[in-house]
Specification:
Helix content is 33%, strand content 16%. By secondary structure, it is of the alpha/beta class.
């Protein structure tokens, strides 16, 4: 059996897809898996997908692939030559990814339903998101449907915690270490970076505070006692997060890594929809979402607006959170995790 797997997104999207790949490998060790993913996250899958079968393309390049027919044709030829029996297409993949799964062949092609993509009708089955499902569960149900169509009926009920030991095994948690990551993929999902800096200074009075450099946010002066770091690669990031007694950040890729590792965390989730809350170790997570905003959540499962549309009070869901409130949440979480 040869499965094609399509997941060309950023870090958090792939962390919540990883359980699918790991369970496939555990249950069907003789199956061949080809994974189309982003180069910066391909290492997540190194223990389960052979290097020659990890096909890397930047997410934006995949989204635009349909605009360059000669590049699309090269990708289509490569994947079609692999002779997939089936394809699983992650819930949020682009028209180009859906088209590649279609032209690659395979009698079963299953992915997310109800997506805002240009190309429809490429799947043999679409799986609609159901209330209460996390994103990890949605990916899991896509796999269940695809395997069911192949005659495999024993898929577990829920996705297990991703196993990241191939990237960060054997790390000792430092009891006074706090890691702050101020970035996220979208500007409108970021708590103000200057407030993160103030928070870092306050926590540094009685903690070791590490600040993970995030190129998507502006550089700000850091208070005394706060050390900036730039993990060199995914394995270094995982080891760093595994060493922390507390992670503080937005709804971001590193937040989902921290959730998978069981690192206690405080997430300022802003406009992000509930299915993107931490999927694992929820008892160790404090998720801060401002109550009773009529526009929230705007960053929904099947649609990301790309900006804040609240003209009267832009980014209210984030900016209403004061440094005092976030510090208090951090200290409560630290006390509960001590």
């Amino acid at each position: 059996m040869h499965l094609g797997l399509f997941k060309t997104n950023y870090l958090g999207d792939n962390v919540v897809f990883l359980p699918v790949v790991q369970e496939l490998r555990r249950r069907y060790p003789d199956w061949r898996l080809t994974l189309v993913t982003a180069p910066r996250v391909a290492e997540l899958f190194a223990a389960d997908v052979a290097e020659a079968d990890r096909r890397a393309i930047e997410p934006e390049a995949m989204r635009r692939l349909w605009r360059t027919p000669w590049r699309f044709a090269r990708w289509a030829a490569d994947l079609r030559a692999r002779k997939f029996d089936a394809s699983l297409v992650g819930y949020d993949q682009s028209s180009s990814a859906h088209a590649l799964a279609w032209v690659a062949g395979g009698r079963v092609r299953v992915g997310g339903a109800g997506l805002r993509i240009r190309l429809q009708g490429t799947l043999t089955r679409g799986v609609t998101h159901q209330p209460g499902w996390s994103i990890a569960q949605w990916n899991w149900e896509i796999a269940r449907a695809g395997l069911g169509d192949l005659g495999c009926k024993d898929w577990p009920a829920t996705p297990p915690v991703p196993d990241l030991r191939h990237l960060g095994g054997g790390v000792t948690r430092e009891p006074r270490r706090v890691i702050i990551h101020p970035g996220s993929k979208w500007h409108y999902t970021q708590w103000p970076v200057e407030r993160y800096a103030e928070l870092a200074g306050r926590l540094a009075r009685d903690h070791e505070v590490l600040w993970i450099r995030a190129p998507e946010v502006a550089a700000v002066p850091l208070p005394d006692g706060v050390r900036e770091i730039a993990p060199a690669g995914l394995d270094a990031l995982v080891r760093t997060l595994a060493s922390a007694a507390l992670f503080v950040g937005n709804n971001s890729g590193p937040m989902h890594v921290a959730s998978a590792l069981g690192t206690p965390l405080v997430a300022i989730t802003g406009p992000t929809d509930f299915p993107w809350d931490p999927s694992w170790h929820r008892e160790r997570a404090t998720v801060l979402r401002w109550p009773a905003l009529e526009c929230q959540p705007c960053d929904r499962v099947q649609y990301a607006p790309g900006r804040c549309a609240r003209a009267t009070e832009p980014l209210a869901c984030l900016r209403r959170w004061s440094v005092d409130a976030i510090e208090a949440a951090c200290r409560v979480r630290r006390a509960e995790g001590a």
